[in-house]
Amino acid sequence: MAKTITGFSKLSKSEKIDWLVNTYFTNSESTKSLLKQYWNADEKLQQLHDEFIENTITNYYLPLGVAPNFLINNSVYTIPMAIEESSVVAAASKAAKFWFDRGGFKAQVISTQKIGQVHFTYDGDSEDLDVFFNHVIKQTFLDDAKHITKNMEKRGGGIVDIELRNKTNVLDNYYQLHATFETLDAMGANFINSCLEQFAITLKREASKSLNANLNVVMSILSNYVPNCLVRAEVSCPVEKLTENPNVSAQEFAEKFVQAVAIAEVEPFRAVTHNKGIMNGIDAVVLATGNDFRAVEAGVHAYASRNGKYTSLTHAEIKNGTFSFWMEIPLALGTVGGLTKLHPLVKLALELLGEPSAKELMQIVAVAGLAQNFAALRSLTTTGIQEGHMKMHLMNILNQFEATSEEKTKLVEHFKTNTVTHGAVVSEIEKLRR
Ligand code: MEV
């Protein structure tokens, strides 16, 4: 059967599935029943999920876990995390408990502004454009966008500023309207993009009246780089309170930890992995709360290279006997709009967090990232990552071998005192089954 199709999107869901399984799968019946196995029995709920995206054929599950005991700015949170990687939630929980007993996490939103740009070309005199923008039409942009901004303005947000930026030094005839927005509890992508598209209409209309050169709008879109939507998370405590491990002195642990962060600050190969560990925590909460993790990822990594070299997002120091560990990251998050009122588990996650404002969610997410990095560095600089990771991964290996509950109980017990490696687990399963 042909592997291409026209009009696929017009087919019903079951017609789409029929075409797919008959075209690509040898056992079409078992493929069909697998797809159906992941449908929700509640038809309305399934339809809701079908309509989140296009061409939906089934649901793709991720586990939703929780990490309790997070003390953030003196309030206790249980943090929801949607992630497939074993040991991430356990690590977050462990770090939460560790810092709970040492004063908890402090977090602070530094700024909340977001950026959007209208990119355009203009082949006339740049001074004419400057006069036209600053003295003729700047206010018109705001007036024309009023129908989009008035509700946001009532709540205290809206367009903060619009600037004309001359970028002809980097690309011929290239200019921007560079606009700054305050979108309060909304992530704001739709609001910003609607404003920008209105700016583009105003720009073209007014330019055709007042300018004697060609002005062409190339595109209007928000930026996912949000270096002015920043949150800081930190922990600190006297060095002597830092270790629970009798084999490592607190001072030794603190110094090694600071050294590990310093390595990530100067060595991009390490920084990427270091930051990936931070994103384990961040993405999991971003996903659980229905936010756009791709936007967050793109913005955070751009921020990590803001000085021209990719570097660690976290920093650590020992000063006057105090260990401090902190991070500042850009996070554009929303707690209204998007999936927040639609996806039942997103609603649940937000209720679990006490219906946070976007600012509170920024703090919680940043703390989850810092906690994750703390847990990773603590393992890496002491026992190594594999010991804990493989213990958590044990269940995945057992499931690969379709271990029964009885086998699982025996093997989990066995590996409490034995090192987990893939080979060791396989050999123990074989022994049991012999
Ligand atoms: C694994 O998902 C994340 C780590 O590699 C992070 C790190 O190395 O810091 C453990």
Keywords:
four-stranded antiparallel sheet; globular; single chain; binds (R)-mevalonate; 49% helix; 15 helices; 434 residues; Alpha-Beta Plaits; alpha+beta; 3-hydroxy-3-methylglutaryl-coenzyme A Reductase, Chain A, domain 2; 4 domains
Structure notes:
With 434 residues, the chain is an alpha+beta fold. The chain has four domains: 8-50, no CATH class; 67-106 and 232-383, 3-hydroxy-3-methylglutaryl-coenzyme A Reductase, Chain A, domain 2, CATH 3.90.770.10; 114-222, 2-Layer Sandwich (Alpha-Beta Plaits), CATH 3.30.70; 389-433, no CATH class. Helices cover 49% and strands 19% of the residues. It contains 15 helices and ten strands. It has helices at residues 13-24, 28-37, 43-50, 88-100, 126-144, 146-154, 189-210, 250-266, 268-288, 293-304, 344-352, 358-380, 385-400, 405-414, 422-433, and strands at residues 64-72, 75-82, 106-109, 113-122, 158-166, 174-182, 215-222, 230-238, 314-319, 322-330. The strands form three sheets. Strands 3-8-10-9 form a four-stranded antiparallel beta sheet. Strands 5-6-4-7 form a four-stranded antiparallel beta sheet. It has a two-stranded antiparallel sheet with strand order 1-2. Helix 1 (13-24) crosses helix 2 (28-37), helix 8 packs across helix 9 and helix 9 packs across helix 12 (358-380). The chain is globular, with a radius of gyration of 26 Å. It starts with 12 loop residues before the first helix and ends with a helix. The mean pLDDT is 95. The structure holds (R)-mevalonate. (R)-mevalonate is lined by residues 85, 273-274, 276-277, 280, 376, 380, 385.
